[in-house]
Amino acid sequence: MQLNSFQFPDRSKVETFSQKQQQIIVNQQTPSIPSNQITGTTGQPFVAVSPQSMTISTNGATDLIGGQIEMAMTMQNLQGVAVQPGNTYVAMLSPDRQSWMVQETMRSVNTTDMTVRMVKRTQMDGEYMVVGRQTVETNTLVVPFGSDGSTSVAIQGSGLQENEFQDGFRMATRATQPMTMNVNVKKGVDQGMLSALQGQSSINDYRYSVVTNLAAVTPNLNQQVTVVQMPVNAIRIQKMMQAMNVPANGMVAIAVAQRGVLQNPGGATGNLNSAGTRRSLLGRSEFREEIAARQIQNTNAATSTTNNANPVAQQLLLAPTFTPVAATAVLDQANMRIAIPVKQVDGEYILTMTLMSAGGAQAAAAPQTAPAAAPAAAPQTAGSGESAASPATPATSPSATKSEAPAAEAPAAEAEKATMEASNSTMTAKPEPTKSEAAKTEESKMAERREESKTDKYGLPVAPMGAVIMTMKQIDDMASAMTWGGGVAITKMMSEYVKAQTGNDLFGSSNSTGADSGIKITV
């Protein structure tokens, strides 16, 4: 194949191999959205390095080979926006045209010719732009856990910002007010915190605690939305599923639960004796004394606030139990995370697991069968001669015993006769069974539709709200990827291949010795 290379007056370049003849059109334009709407990488603030963006259009080319978009930059431009060359990216406009997407695995920076590339492309249609992050650190920024100022993250009051913490916990935040955020881990999950989760069990024995300086006390102060991305420990889930004897074709539902901040926990309402109301009840001298006392109290409060960097955050009152997040969750299998949007990020978060099997189906069907069994027991407890309870028995319990049938037939016949006499026509009594049968048929059809709606277009069960369904195969594949550094087990494949061909081990048994001779450290 021959490399197709197209260079433009601003030193930008588009290169690709192609399996067949394709058409490409390249233009420049003003960027569609601001450069601070960034997803795919962490940190803030992001600025535009180039004043214009590049648009590429093809005739439906989706099978390109080794395509790359190379965009040029100058040292003058970088110095003008205070960006280092190592913090430059080629960002692509998202399909919904709401953010610039950065793909770390497709990024390449060449400081020799001052270019930055997006590589390994199989299709190129889209809008591209060079953006830069105004930070000293380069590449992905990882924030440590903590609750003090040294571990806080500054969230800009505009734009879209992602922040990742040291275990992979990640948040994408779009806020209307500047704020600071701390994420910490707290040990232990009490059983009392799980009482509202209806049989769900916590995967880990710790909780993520998220605290902002706005503290969610006034929800309307900051109109924000955050996508919380919680890391999945596939090896731990694998062991839990094995302990639960989950079969090879079994499934579990992994969900995110939150303990949010209680709004107005005391339930106070109305005006709470404002200063104007108290003024009319006090004399002039008494009012002055009260003002002086308030000034002293405010001075003491200001002193304590100075000593305590975030006084409100330490007084947050959380809900007593975790509740599932009522939103659609998405599984990021490549990065081993579960993402779900939340409105107020303050609070605590855990991952929960529920077995999706025949036991789960019985638990869902229990509320439907329970009301039918309750009226059947009513005639036994109410007495044998009650005429009011007997007619209800055949209507609500078709499987009643034969001994109760004669007692029910007489009142039913009298009711039908009274209906016929009242209408003075024999035709009005006949449609009644037809209507009841039609209602039963409609109910059965609706039940069938509900059963069918529980599966998606691939025939797989639909996950509950706020959860994702993971199969045993998915968990095993993710656990294997974690064991082998997130990739393919290269040396294992080599050894198995050589052993299958020659019968001998490729690396021998020397690598397995000496592991127990090191120093053991207990954490």
Structure in words:
- The protein is α+β, with helices and mostly antiparallel strands and 523 residues long.
- Among the domains are: 4-133, Chondroitinase Ac, Chain A, domain 3 (Sandwich), CATH 2.60.220.30; 142-263 and 310-359, Chondroitinase Ac, Chain A, domain 3 (Sandwich), CATH 2.60.220.
- Helix content is 28%, strand content 26%.
- It contains 10 helices and 26 strands.
- It has helices spanning 75-80, 234-243, 275-281, 284-307, 358-382, 392-396, 405-423, 431-453, 472-483, 490-502, and strands spanning 4-7, 13-17, 24-29, 38-39, 46-48, 53-58, 65-72, 88-93, 100-101, 107-110, 115-121, 126-133, 142-143, 153-155, 160-165, 170-174, 179-187, 201-202, 206-212, 225-231, 251-259, 323-324, 330-332, 337-342, 347-356, 467-471.
- Strands 14, 17, 18, 19, 21, 22, 25 and 26 form an 8-stranded antiparallel beta sheet that branches.
- Helix 2 packs across helix 9 (472-483).
- The chain is globular and about 90 Å long.
Describe what is shown at a glance.
This protein is α+β, with helices and mostly antiparallel strands. Among the domains are: 4-133, Chondroitinase Ac, Chain A, domain 3 (Sandwich); 142-263 and 310-359, Chondroitinase Ac, Chain A, domain 3, CATH 2.60.220.
The CATH architecture designation of the domain at 142-263 and 310-359 is Sandwich
User: Strand-residue fraction?
Assistant: 25-35%
CATH topology of the domain at 142-263 and 310-359: Chondroitinase Ac, Chain A, domain 3
Regions with little confidence, pLDDT below 50 for 5+ residues: 271-281, 301-314, 358-412, 421-431
